[in-house]
Amino acid sequence: PGGKWVGRTGVTLSVSELQVKMNSSGVNGTVREGDAVTLTCDTGSCSSTQTQITWFKNGRPISHTQTPANTLRLNPVSCTDSGDYSCAVREYRETRSEGFTVDVCCKYLQLQP
Q: Coil, strand, or helix at residue 92?
């Protein structure tokens, strides 16, 4: 109210929340070492051909993951892949998705002395 919009006519702004979803070859949602895991960054109304996604693990960008398909494939998944994953549209890294935790059940757990 009382505000003024300045801009070109015909410009549409659509803001949607990014969300990470997981598809796994594991049984009952359990991810085990050696399974295939695909994380998808759901961009809502933007098609995968319109955006490039940058993936993050534990808050840090994962190198070489700017994919036009909005997916991150971990195949085979290992214990070191456990962590908190998020995604962002490449140009807007500060607007990352909520974190999605991938917890890999490891075959062998080696204890440090």
A: helix
Taking only the tens place, the pLDDT of each residue in 54-99 is: 899 999 998 876 565 788 988 899 999 999 999 988 776 778 899 9
Dihedrals phi, psi of 39, to nearest 5 degrees: -100, 135
**Phi, psi dihedrals of residue 62, rounded to the nearest 5°:** -90, 125
Q: Is 75 exposed, middle or buried (0-12, 13-18, 19+ CB in 10 A)?
A: exposed
Compute how many other C-beta atoms are within 10 angstroms of the C-beta atom of residue 67: 18
Q: How far is CA 77 from CA 25, 37, 95, in A?
A: 10, 7, 27
Residue 90 phi, psi (nearest 5) = -50, -45
Q: Please spell the DSSP secondary structure of 50-61, one letter per residue.
A: T--EEEEETTEE
